[in-house]
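Sensory/regulatory protein RpfC
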Amino acid sequence: MPSFLTPSNLLILFVAVTLIVNVIGWQRDRKRLIALRDETERLRHSADQAMDGILSDVAGRKEAERARHDTEQQLTSLVRNIPGVSFRCQVDEDWTMLFMSDAALTLTGYSPKEFVSQGRSFASLIHPDDRERLSGVVRDAQQAQRSYSVEYRIRHRDGHELWVWENAEVMFSEENGESWIDGVLLDVTETKLRTAEFESTLNAIGRVLSVIEFDMDGNILSANDNALKMIGYELDEVRGHSHRMFCDPAYADSRAYRDFWQRLGQGEFDAGEYKRYAKNGRPIWIQASYNPILDADGRPFKVVKLATDVSVRKEMEVALRDAKDRAERAAAAKTTFLANMSHEIRTPMNAVIGFTELLLDTPLDARQRGHLETVHQSARSLLGLLNDILDTAKLEKGVVELEYVDFSLRELCLDIASSLRLSAQAKNLPLEMDYAPGMGEFFKGDPLRIRQVLVNLLGNAIKFTERGSVRLSISQENEMVHLAIHDTGLGIAPDRIGKIFDRFAQADPSMTRRYGGTGLGTSIARQLVDLMGGKISVESELGVGSVFHVHLPLLQGEDILTLPAAANDDLPPLRILIADDVEQNVELLVIALGKLGHHVVSVDDGAKAVDAACNNRFDVILMDVQMPVLDGLAATRLIREHESVYRLAAVPIIALTASVQAEDRHATESAGMQGFASKPVEIGALVTEIARVVGMNPARVIPAADLPRPLPPESQDAEPAEAAQADNRAIDHEQGGFVWGSADALNLAIRRFLAAHADASTQLATQWNQRDLTAMGALAHRITGAAGNLALPALHDLAGQLEHALKHNELDAVPVLLSTIEGAFEAIRQTVDPMAGTAAAAPDARAAPDLARNAVQVCARRVIEALHRGALDDGALADLARTLRDHGWTARAASLEAAIADFDFDRAEGLLQPLLAERVTVEE
């Protein structure tokens, strides 16, 4: 036996092997751990040594300790992760803490240690207003031996308040009789604020809206007071009942109603206006939204309806709709009324104006002519008022259409100024025009509407200006043409400027009584300017004057000039059928057309017109649109049908109508009419239309370069001092030369005037002695107008004063004025007589032997162009008169000179137009 194998060493080896074996076993199954405790005591007996040991198994105790440690760790982790503060406290006034989780620091700003071991009282943090309530809740829970939940406020260490929710239970130990509280504290400040906001929102909604809750089958769960008031029920009367009770039975049984609830069941929102029925079947209109409310799984479990009673609004909408319908019917009736009134007023006016013009062409004494001119002027004024009203109606209805043609803006403005100059001169007002140097002349636009705007504004300026001047200035501002109308008139008060463009509005309500008019001129101007894409504005100072600004977007046009259609007298004798049921209209047309050499047949209804047209051959038919038995449109259709069946050439038919509505013109075209003439009928315009439809000499467009133009005057402005001096002169040669084109033409016209009014002073004296004030006023008016046109300022002023005195019954001034007027006539005679030889020789000086047709037309064009400006090219007129006489047109030359002498430029132009025809004949 080896020496080291002693009993003691063997014992040690046994213990070591056992330990190793046990450790290996624990490593193998990981289920059991054996801990050995070695208590050895060496026993020494004689020479041998011995070791005694005790082995104890402590694995169970170690396992229990480890389990307890694990449990403590789990509990610590759970407490740490609880959303809030876990605590245990004594049931005392200070809420003395026995334990608090680490979350206390976040909730209160104090550490758990400060509460548990340093004596910090939790009760000191509780809001004073909440302490008594909290103590009562705890007492009740303690007595009932149950848990409790309560919300209260605490103050954080930094001073701000927060709401906490406490859920706890009072515990009791039977062993020692002690009690304590175990619980959790949660910060619910944000939730509390959100809840308060939500509740306030719900309360606000509830105060304003009707709220009804339904289950998913449509049964009523609840309703607020607004809803109950709206439907007229008590809550017990509707709770548990179906939504169908508020619906029309037919709708409740429909597929649409089932689909409605099906969509809500799928969580879809629905809103709109609905007709529902309240208690006792009372219909109501509501604006409502149906809002499905979803549970935590996203499934709808009820529907909240928010509604507002819109019955009153619905009634208003219905009332407004009815009012709109009535207004539209009234507007349609107004349009029809205007069309009818147009016909009814224009028809008798046609006779008044037409027969007055016929009578004015006959020999009359001065008194008769004065009366007829008054009638004629009054009828024209009435027609102007009617046209204003009809223009307003057309603009309101939006039926005014613009045309875009090339035109001369300079010529247009000169023509307007010329046409209004006599009105201005009658009030001793200079009418000036300032066309900006270097500005283009030709533009593209609607010259008719531009003329209408300028005539309205210039006419108003003259009407409301008693002294000073009126001026039209034209300039270019970028891409806009600026037309400015200046006057030194009454001005407009600041509080009226904003209304000056309103319909039927004037600067002063007394204007209508004092000056007349409809108050539509500026309104029509504004609407037309708006229609053309422009702007209109006004500057004015009361008692100083006004400036109306018109800006129009006119494009540059081509350099061309359009001449009017053929003249009246060149039509060959035509067979004309007139169909009109108004006897005066027929009589007027028969006389007027008969004088022009036409053979006229008349009928008084459409059926007779059809019969006459189908059994006779006419060159043209004048067809009234509104007639008994058969109207003009139906009659035209029957005539066209007859011509189609028998393959006859269509006879031209011209519509005669007092209507000015665009749709009426379209209706005549649709019926087969080729022409259109408005009543009151202008004979010249009617004959021109006849010439057009029968294919004679249509309007021609001639390049402007082919027409010789006199240079425009550099300026029409005159200094006030010069104007005052001119008023004392017998003849204003500068102004007269501009108007008439030359001094020779002016002197010739003045001599003709003196010849025509040689006994004017005697006539006035005789009429004064007979106290025939009406005849005196008419003669004075004619002298005033002629003197103004002839640049005779002294006579113009005196005759105007006489006219004013007679009109306003200021008769004391008449004898002096009569004497002064005779002196003015004599001054004019003395001024003209020295130049008589020069004027008489003018035609011979310009004579040219045997002028060719082209020369005749060039002269005629020059004269027409001058007439359009209200002036006269004396040289062209002299050459033209000589040539006409050389070619045998003596009567035509005499008629032309007579028309010029009478200042009847329209008739003069009518006599000139045939000279522009392709062929010029010498027949008289």
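thats it. The chain has a mean pLDDT of 76. DSSP finds 34 helices and 27 strands in the chain. bye
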